[in-house]
Write a structure and sequence with these properties.
5 helices, 72 residues, mainly alpha
Length: 72
């Protein structure tokens, strides 16, 4: 079994998209979170900084989705 950090990184590298964000968070929040991710990427930020600025509930949804896809 892989750990959550590995699953998270695989997920962001391989699967994260606007469609995934909307799937997890709904249209409004999904678009907001995805646009923040794009902003971080375009302005020299990184994925961990973006993730750290999400609230605990949003973080948990991403980790749970990553584990769902990569903990097989």
């Amino acid at each position: 079994m892989k750990n959550e950090v590995t699953n998270f990184m695989f997920y962001l590298f391989n699967r994260w998209s606007k469609e995934e964000a909307i799937r997890l968070y709904g249209n409004n929040l999904g678009n907001h979170i995805f646009n923040k991710w794009v902003w971080y990427r375009e302005n020299g930020g990184d994925q961990l900084e973006w993730y750290a600025n999400l609230d605990n509930q949003c973080q948990r949804k991403i980790v749970d989705r990553a584990n769902e896809l990569y903990n097989k």
